[in-house]
Amino acid sequence: MSTHAATAQPSYLVDTGTRKGLVAWLTTTDHKRIGLLYLYSMMTFFFVAVGIGFVMRLVQLTTFQKLITAQTYNALFTVHGVIMIFLFVVPGLPAIFGNFFLPILIGAKDVSFPRLNLASWYFFMAGAILAVLSLFTGGGAPDTGWTFYAPFSLKTGTNVSLAVFAAFILGFSSMLTGINFITTIHRLRAPGMQWFRMPLMCWALYSTAWIQLLATPILAITLALVILERFFGIGIFDPAKGGDPLLYQHLFWIYSHPAVYIMILPAMGAISEILPTFAKRPIFGYKAIAFSSMSIAGVGSLVWAHHMFTSGMSGTALMLFSLLTMIVAVPSAIKVFNWVSTLYKGSIDFQPPLLFALTFIFLFCIGGLTGVMQGALAINVHIHDTYFIVGHFHYVMFGGTGMALFAALLYWFPKMWGKMYSKKAIYLSWFPMFIGFNMLYFGMMILGMMGMPRRYYVHLPQFHTMHVITTVGSWFLILGLLMFFGALLYAIFKGEKAEDNPWGGVTLEWTIPSPPPLENFEEIPTITRGPYHFEQEGK
Amino acid sequence: MDWMNQAAISAEKSDAVFFYVFGLSVVFLIFITALMIYFVVRYSKKRNPVASQIDGHVGLEIVWTVVPLVLFLSIFYYGWTNYEYMSQAPRDAMAVKVTARQWSWSFEYPNGKQSKVLFAPLGKPMKMEVRSADVVHGFFIPSFRLKIDAMPSRTNTTWFQATKVGSFDIQCTVICGVDHSLMLSKVIVVPEEEFKAWYFGGENAPEPGKTLPLPATPDPKDLPRGLALMTANSCLDCHSVDGKPMVGPTLLGLYGKQQQVLVGATLKTMIVDEAYLRRAITNPMDEVVRGYPPAMPEASFTPQELDEVVSYIKTLK
């Protein structure tokens, strides 16, 4: 760990070129700045969608229904889903932390194609703007749910075409980022950085990038077909014209199930970085975790039809997809065991990122186990398309990916901005967040077991008590979120200066200054050992 | 408790698997959480200042690959075999045609009898042949733990054998438009004799389960023919005939009125005439009344029925 000379390059946050301020940011090809562009835009979308979720919960306290009509409610859950999935959870960790840290973690100056990287962000923003436009133009906000099931999505008079086109554009952002990361990992690893010396975050991003590259085109084609069908009535999905709505569901989920792994794999990668740093010992079972990422990417591409168990597929298809779903649960279980074992005989320095990483493990376990319940056919017949599903995927997407994103943000915050946040404020925000989260989403799962279908504007009276409990939970959750991001925002402007290596980490990002210099490394390092090597020098 | 009510054999089959997986899940979650907390406390920096540098353990990796695999496979097998039972109707089951449309359910029995709620005899297998007349819907009876999608392209089947007398909710589970959450009905389970009395009792036999709460359905014989047609096609779920505001514009005073409609994204002003009424019923998405959601499904009237509906609307002044 050499000391960096004071004559070193300026931080990436300082404008060095001829362009200054906002223009410099909007034309940057620096992977770190692009990471932050993604972060700021995504957090904006995230809070818009949180706000929509807040209103949806209020509608379930029936007194609020004078303000929001059934049609508006249907638009709200569609928009909440589209924003959260396509603008936050799918691109979240890879676009923010993948961009910022992948090159640093493998000892590179930037990604392979920096200009393409900036173009990806513009595709992302173009898609986002089109999605927003679809709310206010044409026949009004789409009301089909984010799944756009045909033939309803073909028949509705709302602005489905534009919303679907927005998702089509967003797909390009995802694919181009995938190509960029795959190439970067293959070509730009520092000398001596063999595959099994890469930090596990890189393995996670690598497997994610392959899914992005291989699965996203199928979504793009499917959505293009929906648009063609709406404008020209080509009759691929509409049974009145000889099409098959089941075909739409297959094509949609062939992408959208792997997309779940696009969302969760980088989260798992971030957790695998955080745990060794705070346990001060190598990760338990490095290769098992690396291979389980790759096998999740592989087997995860073969389980899509478990979203369609009630659609009337053949018994053989049901049996096979249920079986494969159970098998894909194994690598996730392997990861959980390895993470917990990483704490064994460590020397644990309990800090906010570790708290959120452990919260991730707990919530992800609940999300994973309830996923196994749905994989079992006899249970699925009951809970399919109910609030149980809604509760379950919020445990995975929010409790999993969301908490991991928060943990990663806390972990790398001092590196990214060179500032430290108030740890006390973060601990304080954890309590309402954790309590509210479980009230809201566990409550939803109970509602689902009771038989409450999803996407309902009004509910039958027997469900009302649980709806009140979950709604109150959502208030706690939002309070926690506001405290959390309030503390981080405050720290960006007024935080104390952070050390270069505040957590005592040993991966490459902790060997460079905080915030990192423009080209990351004074000199490209030569790697001689594995990524989590904590032993004292001379031992 | 009402909500975990098991009212059919399928409910027992589904719940058995659920409690098996639930039990395993609770054990696993408590184990993992307790271990995490124990390690964090036991190996804290204070208690254990120097970490042991352990890279992994092949034996343990094998154990926690094989043990979850075996458990997951047992869950798969149990879930699959019970599902086989839940999905394969016995040969002597009475076949009921279930038709879903935006936003109502209708049921047709083998002898041609029809109903808006599903009548079922206690302890006898009933096979559901589910189909949609428009978009995808979901046929869901929570108390039976039973669900099958209603597709417009194919007939899906499921079956049940009720084990309790009573009235149980039917709900739609696939988003199908503005009144998705009002697409409700009931299964009325009655003793077999009562069901037979209705089923074989001809047109005037009283509906079974009268003591149970039923949604009010007006007798079509007392209504004008146009109104009866609209009631049967759920038009009145969204349009009132007395000026009351609902999801769609009221039909009272509509004929001859000046109206603003959206054609695509452009606004047009027009007088409602007979030609417009016909277009609005057969192609409702082409010209949508301003201020109302573009949500109306296409009605499937015969030309003669359409004449009757239009002439009835013209009388509403």
UniProtKB/TrEMBL annotation, chain A:
GO cellular component: membrane
Protein name: Cbb3-type cytochrome c oxidase subunit I
Keyword Cell wall biogenesis/degradation: no
Pfam family, one: COX1
PROSITE patterns in alphabetical order: COX1, COX1_CUB
Chief place of localization: membrane
Membrane disposition: Multi-pass membrane protein
Localization: Membrane
Single annotated GO MF: heme binding
Keywords, alphabetical: Electron transport, Heme, Iron, Membrane, Metal-binding, Respiratory chain, Transmembrane, Transmembrane helix, Transport
GO BP annotation list: aerobic respiration; electron transport coupled proton transport; respiratory electron transport chain
Classification via SUPFAM superfamilies: Cytochrome c oxidase subunit I-like (SSF81442)
UniProt family annotation: Belongs to the heme-copper respiratory oxidase family.
High-level lineage: Bacteria, Pseudomonadati, Acidobacteriota, Holophagae, Holophagales
Transmembrane segments: 37-59, 79-106, 118-140, 160-182, 203-227, 247-271, 283-305, 317-341, 353-373, 393-413, 425-452, 472-493
Keyword Transmembrane: yes
From TrEMBL, chain B:
Cofactor annotation remark: Binds a copper A center.
Domain Cytochrome oxidase subunit II copper A binding: 91-201
Start and end residues of each Cytochrome oxidase subunit II transmembrane region profile domain: 1-90
Listed GO biological process terms: ATP synthesis coupled electron transport
Catalysed reaction equations from the record: 4 Fe(II)-[cytochrome c] + O2 + 8 H(+)(in) = 4 Fe(III)-[cytochrome c] + 2 H2O + 4 H(+)(out)
Residues passing through the membrane, by range: 20-41, 62-80
Entry protein name: Cytochrome c oxidase subunit 2
Organism whose genome encodes this protein: Candidatus Geothrix skivensis
Gene: coxB
